UniProtKB/TrEMBL annotation:
It holds the Pfam family F-box. GO terms for biological process: protein polyubiquitination. Residues 230-257 form a coiled coil. Residues 356-383 are annotated as: Disordered. It comes from the Eukaryota. Keywords: Coiled coil. Residues 369-383 have a biased composition (Basic and acidic residues). Residues 25-73 form the F-box domain. This is F-box domain-containing protein.
C-alpha cells in the first residue's frame, strides 16, 4: 500500500509538472496578429506565399503582407522613376546617350509589367477573394528596384528583365487558367448600367428608339462592385496608356535612328563622289606613268645597244693590252739580266777600292803613333 501511495504521488507530481510546462510554452498562433506579422516580415515574399497553407492565421497575415508588398513595390517604383527622371536632361537626343538611359528603359518595362499584374489580380484583391499570390515576382521586382537605386550601369533591359518576364507571365497565365474561373463563381452578382454591363436588359419605349437600362434586383446595384469594376477599367486604361507611351517612345527612337541613317547615307554618298574623283585622278596619273614607262623603256633599249658596242670595244682594247703586257715582260727580263751583270762588276771594283783605302788608313795610323812617341821623348828630356 505504501508503495502504491508513493507511486500515485509521484505520478500526480509528474502531471502537475507537465501542466506547468505546458502553461509556460508559448504557441505562435496564440500571439497577437501584429506580432505574427512582425515576425513574418523577416521572410521573403516567396516564403510568405508558400507558408499560407499552414493555418488560417498564417494565411490571413501572409495575404496582408503580400498585398501590402505589391503596393510598396509600386510606390518604390514611382519614387525611383521620379528620381531618375529628375536627373535626365530635357533633350531627347541627350537622354539616349546619358548614363541613366538604361535605368529609364528598365523602369518603363517594369511599369508595364506592374500594370499587367494589377489588371490581373487587383480586381479580385479589391473584392477580397484572393491576395497577390506570386510572391517570387515581388522578390524579383524588389531585387531589380534595389539595383536601380545605385547609379551603376545595369545590363540591357532585355537581359536584366528576362527572369521577371518569365515568372510574371507564368504566374498570370496560371491565375487566368486555374484560379480565376473558380473565383468568378464566388463574385457577387452585380449588374452595371449600360454600357458597362452586358447583363442588363434593354427595353424600347414607345416613340423614338431610346435604350432604357433596367436592373434585375429592383433597380439598385452595389456601389462597391461598381467601384471595383471602374478600378479594373482604370487599371486597364493605365496599362494601355503605358503600352502606348512605350510604343510612342519606340517610334520616336525609330524615327531618330532613320534620320541618323539618312545622314550617314548622305555622308557615304558624298564620300563616294570624292572617292570617284580621286579614282579618276589616279587613272590619269596611271596613263601618264604608262607613257613615261614606254619612253624610259625605249631609252633603255638604246642604252643597252650602246653598252654592247662599248663591250666589244673594251674586249678589243683588253686583248691589245694583254699583248703589250707580254712584250713588256720580255723586255723587263732582258733588262734584269743586264742589271745583274753590272751589279757584279760594281761589287768587284768596290772591293778593290776598299782594300786600297784600308792600307792607306793603316799607314796613317802608324805615322801618327810615331809622331806621338817622339814628342813624349822630347818632353822627358827637357825635364
Amino acid at each position: 500500500m505504501a508503495s502504491n501511495l508513493f507511486s500515485d504521488e509521484t505520478y500526480e507530481e509528474k502531471m502537475e509538472r507537465v501542466e506547468e510546462n505546458e502553461k509556460q510554452v508559448i504557441i505562435l498562433t496564440q500571439l497577437p496578429e501584429e506580432i505574427i506579422e512582425k515576425i513574418l516580415t523577416s521572410l521573403s515574399y516567396n516564403d510568405l506565399a508558400e507558408i499560407r497553407g499552414v493555418c488560417q492565421i498564417f494565411n490571413k497575415c501572409c495575404e496582408q503582407l503580400l498585398n501590402s508588398g505589391f503596393s510598396k513595390i509600386d510606390k518604390l517604383h514611382a519614387q525611383i522613376q521620379k528620381q531618375v527622371k529628375s536627373q535626365l536632361p530635357r533633350r531627347e537626343s541627350e537622354r539616349r546617350n546619358h548614363p541613366l538611359a538604361r535605368h529609364v528603359d528598365i523602369l518603363s518595362a517594369i511599369e508595364t509589367r506592374l500594370s499587367l499584374l494589377g489588371m490581373t489580380y487587383m480586381r479580385y484583391i479589391d473584392m477580397g477573394l484572393c491576395c497577390f499570390i506570386p510572391g517570387k515576382v515581388l522578390d524579383e521586382l524588389l531585387r531589380i528596384l534595389n539595383t536601380l537605386k545605385y547609379p551603376q550601369q545595369p545590363p540591357r533591359a532585355h537581359e536584366f528583365l528576362q527572369e521577371l518576364r518569365d515568372i510574371s507571365s507564368m504566374a498570370m497565365e496560371h491565375f487566368e487558367e486555374k484560379i480565376a474561373p473558380s473565383l468568378k463563381t464566388k463574385m457577387p452578382a452585380v449588374t452595371l448600367p449600360y454600357p458597362f454591363s452586358d447583363c442588363s436588359s434593354r427595353e424600347q419605349s414607345p416613340g423614338p428608339s431610346v435604350k432604357v437600362v433596367t436592373i434585375n434586383d429592383a433597380g439598385a446595384f452595389r456601389g462597391n462592385s461598381v467601384r471595383h469594376e471602374l478600378s479594373r477599367l482604370t487599371n486597364q486604361v493605365r496599362g494601355l496608356q503605358a503600352n502606348l507611351q512605350q510604343q510612342r517612345k519606340e517610334l520616336t527612337d525609330t524615327k531618330v535612328r532613320s534620320v541618323e541613317q539618312r545622314k550617314k547615307v548622305v555622308e557615304l554618298e558624298r564620300k563616294l563622289q570624292i572617292q570617284g574623283k580621286t579614282v579618276l585622278e589616279h587613272e590619269q596619273k596611271l596613263h601618264s606613268q604608262h607613257a613615261l614607262i614606254s619612253e624610259q623603256s625605249q631609252t633603255i633599249s638604246d642604252l643597252s645597244k650602246k653598252i654592247l658596242e662599248f663591250d666589244q670595244k673594251f674586249a678589243d682594247v683588253y686583248s691589245e693590252l694583254t699583248r703589250l703586257k707580254g712584250d713588256s715582260d720580255s723586255c723587263l727580263s732582258s733588262q734584269s739580266s743586264n742589271a745583274s751583270i753590272l751589279a757584279a762588276c760594281t761589287n768587284s771594283s768596290i772591293d778593290e777600292l776598299g782594300l786600297e783605302s784600308k792600307e792607306k788608313r793603316d799607314s796613317l795610323k802608324r805615322r801618327s803613333l810615331r809622331d806621338g812617341s817622339g814628342e813624349l821623348c822630347k818632353k822627358q828630356r827637357k825635364f
